[in-house]
């Protein structure tokens, strides 16, 4: 899909980028002093990932980052969002730093800047050092202190060259699937432990924000440096107008949206949900300074990862937390917590092969709903993309559905800007094909294809050249 307009709605300062995450792209899982992460361990256990796939090699970005950055420059990327592997810098999670790990990210940042590409760093994209998990992981306040040390190390080493930072990526997923459904490490299904772990994540975030601002005030980070938090943005709508479905939808919003956005944008939990959690499980438990830390360290911006909307229904019967990891459309079952709510399919909607609804308007609607609750906050669209099995025809990767998907979502971002939403950048997921945590390498998202049968050779997809034109025209051509 290509469309021409006369003028761009996107401001000149708008950042056209792309995104990735360390475990999914870097490989070199034990190279040059890197310690094991929880994903290095978890993915090697039986029946945890699709066909036993793991990130041991991934796209081997660790050894090929210059080649990959050259492709980013060719595409015209103005910014690149990537995460740092905590155990690559601190193999034990704290203590002595690994010089080789620091050098890798320093060299990557320099290479990006050499090509005029602005780095956006995510400090935590799920790969907790296994050494910290061994002492309790996010359930332990020791991990909060370790994260603060890790953040300080990153600010010290990279803060002079990086303006855009976020602390955590998608608490909904790594806490929800790690502690509620058991599909991610540490593989638990214990709401009480999960709620407390989630609270510790928010306190770690607040401490990292506080430290960031101290560094910025001291001139160790640029004056225009900003720090945010990246959340899933998953708008919920009731499948019918029945009072039961509407109530279920409100509950889904409270538990899956407001609980995760309020602490970083309002500095507090939704009071009625906090009260419910503490009455039911006695958590989260607060340390004396926790309340003030949350209140005093609101984000500079929010990153939103938007892929889909969920239709919500009342749920008197379904207790299922498995998801479609096969890529066979329709193989997924209704996901739900009995007595709370469930996610159901709308027969009038369009879905991907992984049963994710394609609903571009939700990108605009979701940000509008967040603005209504939190006011005029800056947004970065930190992830948005189509997971698919891309066809190769006569040697060319013809990912036309991805072009259509992204084009329609860029139009939704344009609509949001027209309606007064402060959208500052767009980072499709992902720049290059990489490991999908539970889906292996069959689920492709990138502008660049990685041929796993030919020594990980990179190949530009049709979408690569399309996005190149989008960037060149500041969103005019799409």
Description of the molecule:
This protein is of the alpha/beta class and 478 residues long. It has helices spanning 22-25, 38-42, 61-75, 86-89, 99-114, 130-133, 141-158, 171-180, 191-217, 243-265, 271-281, 290-296, 361-374, 400-418, 462-472, and strands at 15-19, 79-83, 118-124, 164-169, 226-232, 236-238, 301-305, 310-313, 335-337, 341-344, 379-383, 392-393, 396-397, 423-426, 448-451, 457-460. An 8-stranded parallel β-barrel has the order 1-2-3-4-5-7-11-14, surrounded by 5 helices. Strands 6-8-10-9 form a 4-stranded mixed β-sheet, with helices on one face. It has a two-stranded antiparallel sheet with strand order 12-13. Strand 15 (448-451) and strand 16 form a beta hairpin. The N and C termini lie close together (7 Å). The model has no long low-confidence stretch (mean pLDDT 95).
Q: Categorize the overall geometry.
A: globular
- Please provide the count of β strands: 16
Distance between the termini: 7 Å
Helix fraction bin: 25-40%
Mean pLDDT: 95
Instruction: List unreliable stretches of 5+ residues.
Output: none
Q: What name does CATH use for the topology?
A: TIM Barrel
The number of helical elements comes to: 15
Q: What is the H level of CATH, i.e. the homologous superfamily?
A: Glycosidases
Strand order of the largest sheet: 1-2-3-4-5-7-11-14
Query: How does the helix and strand content classify structurally?
Result: alpha/beta
CATH architecture: Alpha-Beta Barrel
CATH class call: Alpha Beta
């Amino acid at each position: 899909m290509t469309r021409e307009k006369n003028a761009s709605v996107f401001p000149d300062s708008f950042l056209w980028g792309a995104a990735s995450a360390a475990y999914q792209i870097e490989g070199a899982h034990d190279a040059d002093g890197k310690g094991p992460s929880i994903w290095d361990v978890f993915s090697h256990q039986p029946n945890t990932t699709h066909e036993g796939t793991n990130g041991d090699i991934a796209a081997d970005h660790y050894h090929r980052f210059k080649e990959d950055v050259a492709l980013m420059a060719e595409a015209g990327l103005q910014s690149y969002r990537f995460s740092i592997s905590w155990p690559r810098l601190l193999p034990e999670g704290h203590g002595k730093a690994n010089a080789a790990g620091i050098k890798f990210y320093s060299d990557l940042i320099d290479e990006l800047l050499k090509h005029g590409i602005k780095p956006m760093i995510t400090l935590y994209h799920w790969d907790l050092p296994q050494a910290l998990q061994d002492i309790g992981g996010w359930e332990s306040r020791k991990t909060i202190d370790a994260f603060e040390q890790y953040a300080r190390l990153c600010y010290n080493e990279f803060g002079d060259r990086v303006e855009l930072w976020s602390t955590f990526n998608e608490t909904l997923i790594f806490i929800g699937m790690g502690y509620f459904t058991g599909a991610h490490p540490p593989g638990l299904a214990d709401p009480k432990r999960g709620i407390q772990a989630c609270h510790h994540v928010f306190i770690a975030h607040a401490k990292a924000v506080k430290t960031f601002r101290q560094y910025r005030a001291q001139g160790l980070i640029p004056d225009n440096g900003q720090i945010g938090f990246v959340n899933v943005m998953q708008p919920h709508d009731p499948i019918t107008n029945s009072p039961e479905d509407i109530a279920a939808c409100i509950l889904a919003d409270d538990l899956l949206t407001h609980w995760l956005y309020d602490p970083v944008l309002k500095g507090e939990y939704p009071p009625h949900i906090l009260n419910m959690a503490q009455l039911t499980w006695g958590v989260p438990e607060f340390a004396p300074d926790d309340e003030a830390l949350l209140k005093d360290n609101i984000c500079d911006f929010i990153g939103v990862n938007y892929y889909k909307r969920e239709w919500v229904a009342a749920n008197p019967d379904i207790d299922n937390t498995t998801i479609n990891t096969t890529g066979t459309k329709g193989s997924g079952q209704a996901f739900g917590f009995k007595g709370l709510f469930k996610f159901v399919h709308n027969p009038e909607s369009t879905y991907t092969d992984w049963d994710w609804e394609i609903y571009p308007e939700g990108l605009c609607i979701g940000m509008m709903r967040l603005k209504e609750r939190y006011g005029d906050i800056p947004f970065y669209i930190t992830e948005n993309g189509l997971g698919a099995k891309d066809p190769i025809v006569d040697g060319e990767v013809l990912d036309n559905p991805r072009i259509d998907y992204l084009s329609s979502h860029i139009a939704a971002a344009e609509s949001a800007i027209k309606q007064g939403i402060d959208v500052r950048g767009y980072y499709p997921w992902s720049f290059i094909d990489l490991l999908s945590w539970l889906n292996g390498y069959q689920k492709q998202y990138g502008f660049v294809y990685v041929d796993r049968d030919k020594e990980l050779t990179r190949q530009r997809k049709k979408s690569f050249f399309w996005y190149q034109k989008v960037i060149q025209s500041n969103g005019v051509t799409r």
